[in-house]
Amino acid sequence: MTWLGGLKVFVRLGFNVIKCFNTITSFSWVLMSLSVLIQLLMLIASTAAIIVSACMSRKSILASLKMVKEQNQIQMFAEYTKRFQEIIMNMPKSVYEDCDEVNDDVLRYMQLYFNLCSEEFDLWTKDAISPDVWEKWLSGIKLTMNRPVYRKAWSLEKENYSMNTVFVEFLDACIDNKK
Q: Cα(21)–Cα(99) distance, rounded to whole angstroms?
């Protein structure tokens, strides 16, 4: 083997080593790319899981909030019904005997009734009660306010509500002036 022949073998061997290194490097690049791809897919899958979980949590939270709101409305309705019943039960009997005399005793309970009506009206204007509840309360208010003794008491008490003109207008509109 001549010096030149040795050089050829060495060069050929060098090219083969470089070829082999390139093959190893590209294989390693493929493995590395595959690893990065797997990590990327795992990241996408976990992000999708988080988004789905967040959406489900949002729906769950909204459903819980709706249920709490409904429970609060039921509790509020029960509380206002109880207050109404206490006022009516303690109202002097003369009110129910078609007497239109408004003495201090009658006026005290009428004030409680008007305050209750004012609070119910306020709840309605703030959408804190359902339309069904409001319709029940409204029909009761109209029926009650058209009794002579309530109309008379309202005419005496109306000025105490002058700061709440919207309520005054509302209660005035509930009274059928044809009676």
A: 112
